[in-house]
Amino acid sequence: MSMPHPTSAPDGTRPSGHESAQSAGRGGAPAAPRPGRDADAPLLPSGRGPGTPRTSLPVPGRSADLPPAHTSLICAALPGLVISTAEGQLTGRGLEGFYRAGRRTLSRCLVRVAGREPLAVQARMLAADRARFVGTLRASPDTGPDPDVVVERTRHAEGIERITLRSSAPRALRLPVEVALGTDLAELGDVASGRSGPELPASVHSAGLRWSCPTGYVTVTADPPPTDALASAGLLRWQLELPPGGTLTVELRVRPDGQEPVRPAGRGAAGPFAEAKVVSDEPAAATLLRTCVEDLRALLLRDPRHPLDTHLAAGAPWRCGLAPAEALAAARMTLPLGTRLAAGTLRTLARAQLAGPGPQSGMIPGPLRDSGPHLPPGCTGTEATLLFPVLLAEAWRWGLAEREVRELLPAAERCLEWLRAAVGDGTYLSDVQPGGPFRCETQAHAHRAALLGADLLDAHGRPGATGLRQWAQAMRTAFRDDFWAEDGAGGRPAAARTRDGRSVSPLGSGAAHLLDTGLSASGEMAPGLLDKARTEQLARLLGSPAMDSGWGLRSLGAKETAYNPFGHRSGAVRVHETAVAVTGLAAAGHEDEAGSLLRGVLAAAESFDGRLPEMYAGERRTPGSAPLPHPAASRPAATAAAAGVLLLCSLAGIRPDAPAGTVTLRPFRAAPLGEIVLTGLRISGAPFSVRVSRLGLAMVEEAGEGLQLGV
């Protein structure tokens, strides 16, 4: 989520200087630059791919006024979404309701049995796409204070609600049941800003009700059909005979514009993720992996023009459209589950890549992202353009088919050509506009893209690798002096460097990207921007109480000016960057700091029932405490769910080189979660399983034919 910024318009948008992904996806010459929006701010959950309407429209109103969602039960099976409170009843207040492609299809669903609302006793998620609500009531006057009827409601994101009545009464019950329904057919942006308007009038339709507006219609049908339907009040009524100990179910189906039920992209054998499982001395690890994979499947979207290609939406409820940088980052972290998501994401974004002459040629467009109190907004298009060749190079190492690599290689080459053109004769890459600062993490992204891109070009006989490596070497040499702020405690990396050579030095989680070097040739880690001594100092800083909250890595150090434990980039724990820090620290040999951060995130995940939000407060962990939720965080969120996969797989240190037919294991020697067994992973499409003992020894238990263990 994004908080207001002084340069923001009232709706949270800001000029990006880059064409939006919407117009780029339509093909043809790029349109003139136009306003973008903050990449952390809400997107309408349209479920549409690039080049189609409403994917990235700004939510009306100020982003700071978004209604809280941290206590909501959010079921997602995009483009289907349903948001509920713990009471179970949908009252039409706040965000409550069923949604399809960003439009609220049902806002009110109130159940009464024998003229009374059931007393809510439990609400919980059953899976990423459904929730269960249980209420009770006393229907027999002679049974004392004990309830004798249980009302169970199971709510599915695909637009189905099942209402089941179970009787414990010793005699048959004749119960009048009524369901009051209503909708405004409002867009989520209008709902969030309080501008959704009144409910629409209903009409009786088949075995239910129908509502219409100029932009479409929605029907609710019931099975069994109601005894009576009163359109003026939006009521469906039944007279149900419930025998002693008996059960009866009423099913409601919400259908907009006559559409078929939602068919999530991640469901069934056609989904892109392997059926990975984990067994560990730490039971929370299994819950985390299972929930993360469920959340990833819930956020999958198909490109409507190329339905075989899937990508991840950024998160629900606010950001259910395509966000290029987040989609690429999440696909990269889920490579142990297979390469199909990476291939689909790369193909989708290759179609959005800017073409034609000019400085933006080869760029993957993306909006601005707020960078916190110390830096101006940054461009996620820059991050996405640099991530594209990195994801392709690493997916190739994980076993992406050679045919697909060659298909995507021209788009990766254009990204690398854009990088070289954007740097020009200089040393560093600015990610926004001329005159802007050189960001530390942008240089890390660019350096990694150059090295991994050069390996990819060399391996496929394409030119340009030498120039990329030479520039990366020159930048690496200069960076170690230019981006290091000396102090009496050993120094720290600068967050950015201005054009006139001044350092912006507050320490934040963005510094973790300096440790993320990626898989280079032969499955080894690429060289980093910091030397060994400065890497050790950065590890000490990231492991200090100022940065390690006990629940994960703070986005800004607790001792820095403008620190705010709830600040989305000024102190809150962002799960994605914590995972980047853990894997980078472990690869550099700093397992104590990595293990502490990993255990912190795992403890936080347990507090959130295994479903990690994109961020939560950076308050210091104390005995008996729990992490404080951020009221505006997406949950489920693609990068957070993918980070859970990366964190658990990092314990085994899997470094594949599928083209060479080898895999190397560099496990945590300290075994911070005790023994752990990861099964059902994928290398080159074949199952891969690995065990790490309590002594930190790793062994392959299952692998594809011909895959050899590297040294």
CATH class of the largest domain: Mainly Beta
Mean pLDDT: 88
User: CA-to-CA gap between the ends?
Assistant: 43 Å
Strand residues, percent = 15-25%
What's the gist of this structure?
The chain is of the alpha+beta class.
Explain this structure.
The protein is 25% helix and 25% strand. The protein has 13 helices and 37 strands. Strands 9-10-11-12-19-16-15-14 form an eight-stranded antiparallel beta sheet. α5 packs across α7 (402-423), α8 (440-459) runs antiparallel to α9 and α11 runs antiparallel to α12. Mean pLDDT is 88; it is low at 1-37 and 43-64.
SSE order and pairing:
Layout: E1 13-15, H1 21-24, E2 35-37, E3 73-77, E4 80-84, E5 90-91, E6 97-100, E7 103-106, E8 108-113, E9 119-127, E10 130-137, E11 149-156, E12 160-167, E13 173-182, H2 188-192, E14 202-205, E15 208-213, E16 216-223, E17 228-230, E18 235-242, E19 247-256, E20 277-280, H3 284-298, E21 300-303, E22 306-312, H4 324-333, H5 340-350, E23 368-369, E24 378-379, H6 380-398, H7 402-423, E25 438-439, H8 440-459, H9 465-482, E26 484-485, E27 492-493, E28 496-497, E29 503-504, H10 532-542, E30 573-574, H11 575-587, H12 591-607, E31 615-616, H13 638-650, E32 654-657, E33 662-665, E34 676-683, E35 686-692, E36 698-702, E37 708-709
Parallel strand pairs: 33-37
Antiparallel strand pairs: 1-2, 3-4, 4-6, 5-8, 6-7, 8-13, 9-10, 10-11, 11-12, 12-19, 13-18, 14-15, 15-16, 16-19, 17-18, 20-34, 21-22, 23-24, 25-28, 26-27, 28-29, 30-31, 32-33, 34-35, 35-36
Helix pairs in contact: 3-12, 3-13, 4-5, 4-6, 4-13, 5-7, 6-7, 6-8, 7-8, 8-9, 11-12, 11-13
